[in-house]
Every structure is written in C-alpha cells, then in structure tokens.
Design goal:
Layout (H helix, E strand, L loop, with lengths): L1 E10 L2 E9 L6 E4 L10 H9 L4 E5 L16 H14 L5 E6 L1 H12 L4 E7 L10 H8 L9 H11 L5 H10 L1 E3 L5 E3 L3 H12 L14 E6 L13 H10 L3 E6 L10 H12 L1
Parallel strand pairs: 3-4, 3-5, 5-6, 6-9, 9-10
Antiparallel strand pairs: 1-2, 2-4, 7-8
Helix pairs in contact: 1-9, 2-3
Length: 280
Amino acid sequence: MRSNEPFDLQLANGRLHALRSGPDDGAPVLCVPGLSANARSFDLIAATLAESGHPVVAFDLRGRGLSPATAPGTHGWRRHAEDVLEAATKLGFPEFDLVGHSMGAFVSLQAAAHAATRIRRLVLIDAAGAPEPAVIPPILAAVQRLDRVYPSEADYLLPIEQHGAAEPWHFWKAHYSYELEPAPGGGVRPRTSKAAVLEDVLYGASQDAKAFWPSLRMPTLLVRAARPLLKTGGFVVGAALRDAFLDAVPSARATEIDANHYGVLAHPDALRAIAGFLTC
C-alpha cells in the first residue's frame, strides 16, 4: 500500500505534483488544498482513507509546494478545477470522490459544476461561500511568509507557530517544511509562489461560490470548523452560511468539528466523519 508516494502529471495548464496513498483499486479520492497550502495538509485524511480501502491522491496546486507556478493569468478556481479533472482522467478515474479544503473547496465546487456526473461524493472542508470579514486579514497575513529568504528552517517555522492558527503544530510543521528549498546564497525559501497565490486571491474576490450550489446533485458533506480561526473571532463558514448552504443543497449535510479552520484537517472527529461519508 502506498503512503505519500510522489509523482508528477503533465497537464494542459502545466505540471502538477501530487502524493498518492492507499491501494491500487477501490473508490478513488482526490484532495485539493487551500489557498497557500499543499498536498501535505491532507496527510491524516489520506492515511485514514487509505486504511479504509481508498486510493487517495492529494495535489500541490500550480504555484504551491512542488508544482511550478505558470504564467500570470493562468491561475484561478476554474483553471485549477480543469487541472483536477484532467488529472483524474490521466489517472484513469472516470468517477471519483472529491475533497477540498478552504480555497480547495471552491475549486471542488467549480469542478462539480463542470463535471457533476464524474464526482461520486463531495466533501467541502470549512468553505462553501464568502467567509466572515474578520477572517480575511489573518488569511492574507499568512501569504506574507512567501517570496522571502530565511536564515534557516527554524527561522521560517517559528513565526508560523507563534501566530497560533496552524494547530496542532506537530501536524502543520511537516506541511510547512515540505515547501522549503535551499535559497541561492544560503538560507531557505518557500517554493510556493506568492504571485500565484495573490492571483487566486484576486480571482476569488470576483467570484460568488453560491453560484455553484445549484449544480450539487451528488451527496455532499460540509465539514465546518466550529471554533473561530483565531481567538479574536471570525469563521470561514459562519452559522448563517452553513444554514443557507444546507437549505439550498438538498443532497448536503453538515458536521460540526471542535477545531479551527486549520485544526479541522487533523481532528479525529473530522477524520471519522469524512471516512464514514466516503465509505458508505
């Protein structure tokens, strides 16, 4: 059985790096990370689903992790969704389950709108529509770590740990270390492209994810982080957004997890809920 086996796919939009876990057969699951995240954010979800008999592929979206950024104007939810669908075809998955976290959930919604018959089940992890305004500044602040050189890996990791949002830290530390590379002249720098991430920020600011809701006919699970992003408050999926989504999408249900927007990816209750939903 594979565990985070790396491989690359050459797609029409560019090269995509991915990690594959689990057996060769079974109902495949594709995982799409958030705005400046990478495939390692799905380590625990991938391991849990692999143990349940699913082949799991987690992507570094273009410009994240080990997937190179492409030219300006080539990113955005629609282009990333094209990558996911083309990758599924190249992997030999005519049908698959799709799991997206944060911006990855918006990419997954876009993919579902384009190819609903290919997606067996959909999991949206703490994103479904516009987040509460209070969470926008800390999300944008996380992008500022990019496009810089740091004296050492420890110097890169310490401010992220001290910020306090990436919890539990023992889980997220591996994720952030994964994106580092040696910098010319010494030190380290993140491979993730600040320009690509900011292009996706601007793209998302002009979109309304609610436009995708009518396309959701497949069974859908919304995994909501029931703790605010930071202690100062603010939810990526507020209670009002959750209720509006469930009212608008009859095929959807929600589960509440006692974690914040980052911790939800590692919480045992979330792992059980996602595995149970995709295995039933």
